[in-house]
Amino acid sequence: MSARYLYIIFIVFIVSIILSANVNATTPEILHQANTLYEKGSYAEAIDLYKSAINSGTINGDIYYNIGNSYYRLSKIGEAIFYYKLALRYNPENGDIKFNLNWAQAKAIDKIQDQNIFSIEKISNYLPLNSKDSFYLLAIFSLLFWGILIYSLFREHKGEHRGEHKRSELIKWVKILSFTFFILFVLISSIKFLNNGRDFGVITNKEASVYSASGKDNVVLFTLHEGAEFEINDKLEDWFQIKLNDGKRGWIKSKDSISTIIINTIKN
């Protein structure tokens, strides 16, 4: 393995990390105004400004967290839970978000038992996938690791056959570490992709009927209440096919909930 080949791997690795990072432009004026309104108790107005910042391209966990807090102050549990869950996608290791989410979930009427011991969402919440601090540490470590490696190989190369055994051992461990880092990077990136691509929603009306199929003429299977969470399996016009954590399925009217599908439609 030549030094040139390792240098190419180093460049590809760093570019991959940079492309996977969530780097967004900030709009400090709007956010400052929104924070000021929040502190004054003008939560509805603060929400409008936070959403304006999101629509302008500033998307991060702190904004979603602030929106969740604002909705909670307005006693809108469904919206609060939804935005706390979005915030966790960006800051999965944040204890404040987890605490507030659990607190809001405790206010929900429907206590749906989670039958999934392991799920993409649960695993993702334990991985700091979008943490800026983790990204910076990983980037710095990668730069140091690959920089020292390439420097060492160039020095060994100048020494011709001197230290050949040492060089072979170094290359062997580089291969092992590189393969390990690659597998971890692919695994974490896959979990991140699958979780962020999963559409979910939360009931925002006081009550929402769940039907056997799309359309009001079908049988009502059960009723959900504000704060009930669900995964979206399909969409047909103004209807969502949903699945609960306890395995129950059915169709609801989209206007009874807030969902990632609606949010993404608004942003696009």
Keywords:
268 residues; alpha+beta; SH3 type barrels; extended
Could you explain how this protein is built, in words?
The longest helix is centred in the last third of the chain and has 33 residues, at 164-196. It is built from 10 helices and 7 strands. It has helices at 3-20, 28-40, 43-55, 61-73, 77-90, 95-107, 120-125, 132-158, 164-196, 260-267, and strands spanning 200-203, 207-211, 220-225, 229-236, 239-243, 249-253, 257-259. It folds into 3 domains: 3-20 and 130-196; 28-115, Tetratricopeptide repeat domain (Serine Threonine Protein Phosphatase 5, Tetratricopeptide repeat, Alpha Horseshoe), CATH 1.25.40.10; 200-267, SH3 type barrels, CATH 2.30.30. The protein is an alpha+beta fold and 268 residues long. It is extended and about 75 Å long. β4 (229-236) and β5 form a beta hairpin.
